[in-house]
């Protein structure tokens, strides 16, 4: 695989595209319109600066700048995938939206192109039929801040060609990830099967009026030695993602989704990416 296309340039999509380009691949980053692409260009420049500031190996020696030169931006989906060996989909966590995108992709992408979803909660089987190529489709899930939290969970469906699975595992390794091979489908993979219940518990404490985010986070940090509490993690993940996932939950989680939307998303407070979420950034701990 040489030419990689990333669909969606949000917090994680932009990281996937930049990390892939940083490791020498030619990357096309797709989003729906020019304003979204303008925001993506800003994210890529910020990532280049962050790689250098955090001492990512090779970044300060020209690697970060070179990565920017390997990324092409487009809002034309057919153009984005015309030469793609691998398409990594990182669009919002909405089943109908993803299925619609895959139906379009099936018509415009070369027959040889592998499709991979970065969905954090949906099973790849929920999307496989829409791809038109279930044997060349699987999940490839990244953690946020992928240059340091560098797991890549690889999860196929019963229809996934084992050779395709092996190719994606090797690709993950080539872009600096630690491939985590998952033996069978599990909503949430490994990481989110552990993380989501933890975050949901924090949301429940908040909407039920038990404590405020600062107290909940401090309790977790002090009691466990963890570097961040759940609401700090929510801000890193992004409140739009938190909203979409919570909306699919039980009554309590839906109340939490409503709180996020009313008090934060509707006011443009989406987390670290916008400078404000549950907290204001940059912040001193």
What do these coordinates show?
The protein has helices at residues 11-22, 34-53, 59-69, 77-81, 95-108, 125-131, 162-174, 191-207, 213-224, 230-237, 239-247, 251-263, and strands at residues 3-7, 26-30, 71-74, 86-89, 114-117, 137-142, 151-155, 178-181. It is α/β, with parallel strands linked by helices and 285 residues long. It folds into 2 domains: 3-181, Rossmann fold (3-Layer(aba) Sandwich); 193-274, N-(1-d-carboxylethyl)-l-norvaline Dehydrogenase, domain 2. An 8-stranded mixed sheet has the order 3-2-1-4-5-6-7-8, sandwiched between helices. The longest helix has 20 residues, at 34-53.
What's the topology here?
Elements: E1 3-7, H1 11-22, E2 26-30, H2 34-53, H3 59-69, E3 71-74, H4 77-81, E4 86-89, H5 95-108, E5 114-117, H6 125-131, E6 137-142, E7 151-155, H7 162-174, E8 178-181, H8 191-207, H9 213-224, H10 230-237, H11 239-247, H12 251-263
Parallel strand pairs: 1-2, 1-4, 2-3, 4-5, 5-6, 7-8
Antiparallel strand pairs: 6-7
What is the helix fraction of residues, given as a range?
40-55%
What is the element string, with H for helices and E for strands? EHEHHEHEHEHEEHEHHHHH
The count of β-strands is 8
Fraction in beta strands? 5-15%
CATH topology value of the largest domain: Rossmann fold
Low-confidence sequence ranges: none
CATH top level label of the largest domain: Alpha Beta
CATH architecture title of the largest domain: 3-Layer(aba) Sandwich
Biggest sheet, in brief?
8 strands, mixed
Distance between the termini: 42 Å
Spatial order of the strands forming the largest sheet: 3-2-1-4-5-6-7-8
CATH superfamily of the largest domain: NAD(P)-binding Rossmann-like Domain
């Amino acid at each position: 695989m040489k030419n990689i296309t990333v669909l969606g340039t949000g917090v994680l999509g932009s990281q996937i595209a930049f990390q892939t380009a940083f490791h020498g691949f030619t990357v096309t980053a797709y989003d729906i319109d020019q304003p979204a692409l303008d925001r993506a260009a800003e994210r890529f420049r910020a990532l280049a600066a962050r790689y250098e500031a955090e001492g990512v190996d090779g970044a300060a020696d020209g690697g970060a700048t070179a990565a920017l030169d390997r990324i092409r931006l487009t809002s034309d989906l057919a153009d984005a995938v015309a030469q793609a060996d691998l398409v990594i989909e990182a669009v919002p966590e909405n089943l109908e939206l993803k299925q619609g995108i895959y139906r379009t992709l099936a018509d415009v992408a070369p027959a040889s192109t592998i499709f991979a979803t970065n969905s954090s909660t949906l099973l790849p089987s929920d999307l496989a039929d829409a791809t038109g190529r279930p044997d060349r489709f699987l999940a490839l899930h990244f953690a946020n801040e992928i240059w340091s939290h560098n797991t890549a969970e690889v999860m196929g469906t019963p229809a996934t060609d084992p050779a395709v699975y092996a190719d994606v595992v090797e690709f993950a390794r080539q872009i600096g990830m630690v491939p985590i091979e998952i033996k069978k489908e599990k909503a949430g993979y490994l990481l989110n099967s552990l993380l989501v219940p933890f975050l949901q518990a924090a949301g429940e404490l908040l909407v039920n009026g038990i404590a405020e985010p600062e107290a909940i986070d401090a309790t977790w940090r002090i009691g466990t030695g963890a570097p961040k509490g759940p609401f700090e993690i929510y801000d890193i993940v992004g409140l739009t993602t938190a909203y979409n996932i919570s909306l699919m939950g039980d009554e309590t989680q839906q109340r939490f989704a409503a709180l996020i939307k009313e008090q934060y998303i509707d006011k443009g407070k989406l987390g670290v990416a916008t400078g404000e979420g549950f907290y204001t950034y940059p912040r001193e701990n």
